[in-house]
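<instruction>
Derive structure tokens from the sequence
<data>
Labelled lines for chain and fold
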Amino acid sequence: MPDPTSSGPQSGDTSASPSAAGAGGGGAAPVFPDLGPSQARDSIRTKPAAAAGIDLLRDVNLQVRIELGRTRMLVEDVLRLAPDSVVELDKAAGDPVDIYVNGRHIARGEVLVLNDAFCVRVSEIIEPLQPAVESSGTHAKLHSVPKSGAA
């Protein structure tokens, strides 16, 4: 509870406290600390807003999946898999692999071996689909169309 003998902030006081700022209608205007030119300059962001937003996401983990190919198998065939079994995929050797981030197909690339480890060189970025609005009657329908405008 505030001290009833105190008359609030003194004229030279540069600190503002929420309780002394006149929450009860005491009439005195809140007092804010003086920010000199050097402090104000330091508080201005030096990065654009978009770059600052991206910085917030830099440590977010994403699931990256590289898909060499696909195939369909019966349960019976899966149960017969053993060491040295060969599973044929729907892509030929040398075909680009598909790169997915969080389940979304974003790129294609080629498989490389570097220092005895498999790597993927990104060769093509998949253009994102942009929603297009088609108006029919009183309702609008959203469709995804390629960025190039081909429908």
The first strand starts at residue 64 and ends at 67. The domain at 47-151 is CATH 2.30.330.10 (Surface presentation of antigens (SPOA)). Residues 58 and 79 are 42 Å apart (CA to CA).
